[in-house]
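Q: I have three molecules that I believe assemble together. Could you output structure tokens for the complex as a whole instead of separate predictions?
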Amino acid sequence: MMEDGALLAARGLELHFGAIPALDGVDADLWPGEVLAIVGESGSGKTTLLDVLSGRMRPDAGHVQVRSADGGVSDLGTMPAPALRALHRSDWGFIHQNPRDALRMRVSAGGNVGERMMAQGSRHYGSIRAAAIDWLQQVEIDPSRIDDMPGTFSGGMLQRLQIARTLVTHPRLVFMDEPTGGLDVSVQARLLDLIRTLVARLGIAVVLVTHDIAVARLLAGRIMVMQRGRVVETGLTDQVLDDPQHGYTQLLVSSVLSA
Amino acid sequence: MTEDTMTDDTMTEDTMTDDTMTDYTFAYLDEQTKRMIRRALLKAVAIPGHQVPFGSREMPLPYGWGTGGIQVTASILGRDDVLKVIDQGADDTTNAVSIRRFFARTAGVATTTHTADATIIQTRHRIPEHPLHEGQILVFQVPMPEPMSKLQPSRAETRRMHAMAEYGLMHVKLYEDITRYGHIATSYDYPVMVHGRYLMSPSPIPAFDNPKLHRSAALQLFGAGREKRIYAIPPHTDVVSLDFDDHPFRAIRAPHACALCNDATTYLDEVVTDDRGTRMYVCSDTDHCTTRVAAQEAA
Amino acid sequence: MAYVAVKGGERAIDASHAWLASARRGDPALPAIDAAQVQAQLGRAVDRVMAEGACYDRELAARAILQAQGDLIEAAFLLRAFRTTLPRFGHSRPVDTAAMRLQRRVSAIFKDMPGGQLLGPTYDYTHRLLDPTLSEAPPAPPEADAAPGDTPPVFAILNHEGLVEPDPAPSAAAPADLTREPLAFPAGRDTRLQALARGDEGFLLALGYSTQRGWGGTHPFVGELRVGEAAVWLEPPELGFPIDIGDLVLTECQMVNQFAGSKTAPPQFTRGYGLCFGHGERKAMGMALVDRALRAEELGEATGAPAQDIEFVLYHSDNVEATGFVEHLKLPHYVDFQSELETIRRMRADVEAAPLQEAAE
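A: Yes, here they are, computed for all three components at once.
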């Protein structure tokens, strides 16, 4: 089912919580270097889709296929747990809405950034530290804060630290769950700008979940609109948002305009 | 050392105790239990460094006082074995005496203080200075078999991490040490990689003893009674202390020579001799020290 | 000064044991207590030692209490160490607590119910005044039992309406046995209940209490608490039919908890279960509260409180394990401490040598 060159492909995903369908026949494709936004209100199934695409949750039915760095294709449903975990700590990354869920709050900023390098076998303290300093600069954190605990950082800094920690090993695919949620508007703008720059420069593919149409418009080339577990509309972001076809998309877009 | 001193120290301890316990089976544990433990030991030897869960029994000694080591020793002990028991390197510390007596009472085996003469050595917190030879078994008492327990308290999660060989977290801890103190600050129970696969706690031996684990000629068995885990290092297995290329592992000892035998290479105890802070440094391995002193006096 | 620090262990242990024996006996002018007296007059202590020692033998428990000078954890340890040497004949059938010969049975959720409330021997309504006359005249014997009729479990009444979750379906698999197989996770309810039944009364009390104070909120009611004798039936394979091998005094608590329902289950009352050897109401109630709290994840409730963390509770409920590991800190640790001393000295030397240099370099 997977087309040549695609990074990830999902077909016929179904997932129910009791009687409530969280995913109801969802298909999705992702290509290298593209940013795909999944938008919808809370309860639309967008976060569940992210969890299923990233293998954190298993669907009741349907498949997710992924292409590894060496070009081989495998099915997430039959992938052994060690392979999936290995994928998550090398080729993939996950940015959580709450950086405290991902960061080690009792480990210094440098240790947080260096962890994935060490997990992949880096054994030179000096080069791990140099990479940490480089990445702190890339996410606009003063490198003199390298030995400080994350608890002393502001919310925006914590989120940037999480991004540095994830990108340090140059993953090809990053899942983002409301990366700017819970931040002040001015902080959000700066963070979005940073994400856009980094993603473009590194050529990372991103699956981005957001309830915020403006975030999708700024970051994503393609968009999927979800309602009650179904994809109601999908296409190029500008096309979908400028000329929404489905009533629900029209509602979402107009509520942004009026807000 | 002369033949005479050897016989003197190689004693059968049931002459020292009033009652060899005839109501219990040889070495206390019933044969079913010993077989269960031996199966766990075989598995442990087959997968070096991997913690094998086992049905640890309640022993008549408290948890944390060597019940794991005692169960391992009881399961491998034969009537012809010669047993040595040390705690902190010494044969005469109270817990070593208590465990040696336990086996003297329940198995009636010969005991010794001489490292070279023992077939089985049960130890807490030290590896003898005298190199071990083929055919010897070193049994470690282990309080906390999980090397990552201080970083990840959930055993369900650490088991997963071992299964996936996810050990980045352990290096994060070392990274933090260097960042904060300028060097790795772990001085005992220093984690090791066994045979390039499993991260392992060497038990709370001083890091000074870690190099002795590497390619030892003896079989090294580890028993954790309360945590119900057994693991092993077969003879001649690679055991590497974790470190960074630019911050290599260093074995630390007090920079002195032993006040009794003058050895400047052994691990030393610091003994406070008065209330004005006067100290003397002596070998922690009492057998090593007395043997050297005896040889010096004879010369 | 002579170097004597590590010698003398043998003599020290002998001397310590002799001193202990003398301290245990106390003033020889006073008569020695007999194990039979302990069994008869310190019954609650005997019960607790049997429960935490996981061995039902009143006489041995009484002897253990005497040997331990009344230190009940030490006594439970003695009983455990003995128990582990016993051969194992097989598993009994599940004990039928509904058919208990009751000494006591109370329910907090109904004023009266079939079989009635039976107060029995309880401290509940005593005034806690030290009684100077306790050792004097022997008390009058209790009135003869008005033999209670049928006393079905209280939750069976709720069950008629489907308001309370039914008993879990019996499993064909043999129940887990912690004394043979080490804990593994996820731990099933059979494992959890066994661990709790052997667990420390104080620990379960504190955890149960914490759930009442909001650390893992439950809204518990004592559905039923019963104390009495239950028969133990064993079916030896060579016989092919069960035989009654004796009676145990047991305390059983069925705690009823409100449950809002989930995506898969309708709103109904759920149950937490407590059972222990002997007369131990505090233990059985604490156990029932904790059992229910440990089901939070299974029932789709919010988790995060200590009493809801299965690994935390199960790894720390056993007082024989806990006391061993805490008390082992008394053993010599001077080899490790020495290595720490050297490390600290080295760090201090580093700092003094280069006070301005950055520590990380």
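A: One point stands out. The interface with chain A takes residues 163-164, 166-169, 171-172, 175-176, 178-180, 243-247 of chain B (CB under 8 Å).
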